[in-house]
User: Which sequence fits this backbone?
């Protein structure tokens, strides 16, 4: 209801501007994966998506902030399937975070280039000049209270502006291409988190993060897609906690898999329909035939509890939050529970369906377990990474008709070697070719022409 009201309000605001004679493109400041509005619906009303980014580079491991910010950029690019603007970012420190830490030298540049890498075509700021009073008087700005251009922040913004100007003749017109679609659906977001049970620890965005991070770490392009997307565009679709399966989704997903697609879904999927009423006949409801399993019970684990999944090769992974107790109906077992009264029952399965496969992950595994399954699925789908060996760097590719560009960025807490496959490629920023064995420092960025 709130999404409908907001979209309707925006629609009529824009109509008034059009009646007044304006033909300028319209936008609205969106925010990360904000839970209050369905951004796929809001995006239909505006011409250009833009969003406000305030990553906390100082609070966590830098890489955690980087992949979260990368996912937000991918979501914004995906809302309309075209370039977006990083409309608002702070060039120094914010005033409303619990700790208003300064951005260290190089962070503003790297953060802005990450936005461009993921499909952005602008990096703007709030604010240009620090206000004298009111609630944001200590919010960072291009021009500080001192009122001079002789500051570190001003110089960094000036440098960024000069570099963006250099790129303005080569980057626009290039696109981010992805072989993987990750379903992000606000109805599922709301339904999963508003339901009572099975665990308060089951948060929608946290679950999306768990799967997005694999592709980020392996430099595989991702598009965040709605449930009514054209699935045929992707070699692989990942649908974590697809709790609500609305009309038409079953048929669309079945068609995708039958035609050779690889689908990965998880615990708490196929549980309810669009009115949040449970599908009877066993979980995962309408996905049951395609998954080749049925789930009899769901065990919720307390925060301090965990089970263990043992894979066919003997390797193991801890799992937590929930465990599906499932029975096979044609699927192949990839991993079994090792503990509790359901030891020996399937925990992870794969089912051939038409020309494709469906992977079903029955518990929230730690990274080593999730990565193992996603690697198997990616190999089945023949998903290609942007770089075969990223060495821990974030590497994103924008493709053009004549030229393509690799954005190579270091968001780790250590200096990293640039992969040898990039040796000899020209860096648009420095004008120099990458040398074999060259090191990229923390927050270092190179844009390499293919």
Assistant:
């Amino acid at each position: 209801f709130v999404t409908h009201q907001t979209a309707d309000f925006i629609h009529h605001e824009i109509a008034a501007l059009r009646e007044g004679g304006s033909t300028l493109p319209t936008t609205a400041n969106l925010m990360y994966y904000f839970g209050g509005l369905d951004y796929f619906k809001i995006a239909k009303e505006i011409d250009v998506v833009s969003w406000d980014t305030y990553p906390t580079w100082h609070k966590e491991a830098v890489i955690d902030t980087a992949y979260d910010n990368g996912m937000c950029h991918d979501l914004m690019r995906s809302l309309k399937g075209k370039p977006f603007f990083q409309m608002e970012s702070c060039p120094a420190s914010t005033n409303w975070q619990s700790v208003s830490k300064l951005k260290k030298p190089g962070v503003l540049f790297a953060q802005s280039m990450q936005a461009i890498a993921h499909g952005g075509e602008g990096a703007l700021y709030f604010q240009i000049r620090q206000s004298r009073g009111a609630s944001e008087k200590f919010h960072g700005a291009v021009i500080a209270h001192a009122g001079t251009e002789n500051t570190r922040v001003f110089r960094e913004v000036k440098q960024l502006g000069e570099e963006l100007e250099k790129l303005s003749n080569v980057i626009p017109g290039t696109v981010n291409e992805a072989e993987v679609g990750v379903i992000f659906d606000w109805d599922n977001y709301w339904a999963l988190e508003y339901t009572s049970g099975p665990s308060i620890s089951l948060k929608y965005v946290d679950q999306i993060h768990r799967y997005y991070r694999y592709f980020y770490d392996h430099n595989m392009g991702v598009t965040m897609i709605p449930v009514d997307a054209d699935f045929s565009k992707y070699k692989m679709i990942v649908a974590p906690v697809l709790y609500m399966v609305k009309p038409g989704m079953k048929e669309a997903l079945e068609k995708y898999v039958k035609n050779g697609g690889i689908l990965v879904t998880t615990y708490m999927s196929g549980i309810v329909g669009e009115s949040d009423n449970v599908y009877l006949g066993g979980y995962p409801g309408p996905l049951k035939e395609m998954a080749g399993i049925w789930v009899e019970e769901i065990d919720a684990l307390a925060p301090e509890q965990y089970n263990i999944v043992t894979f066919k090769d003997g390797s193991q992974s801890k799992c937590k939050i929930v465990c599906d107790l499932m029975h096979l109906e044609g699927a192949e077992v990839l991993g079994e529970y090792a503990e509790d009264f359901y030891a020996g029952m399937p925990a992870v399965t794969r089912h051939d369906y038409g020309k494709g496969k469906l992977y079903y992950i029955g518990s929230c595994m730690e990274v080593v377990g999730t990565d193992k399954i996603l690697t198997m699925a990616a190999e089945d789908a023949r998903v290609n990474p942007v770089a075969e060996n990223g060495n821990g760097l974030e590497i994103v590719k924008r493709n053009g008709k004549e030229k393509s560009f690799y954005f190579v960025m270091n968001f780790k807490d250590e200096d990293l070697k640039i992969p040898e496959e990039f040796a000899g490629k020209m860096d648009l920023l420095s004008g120099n070719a990458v040398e074999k064995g060259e090191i990229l420092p923390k927050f270092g960025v190179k844009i390499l022409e293919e």
Notes: The first strand starts at residue 29 and ends at 31. The mean pLDDT is 95. The chain has ten helices and 20 strands. The radius of gyration is 23 Å.
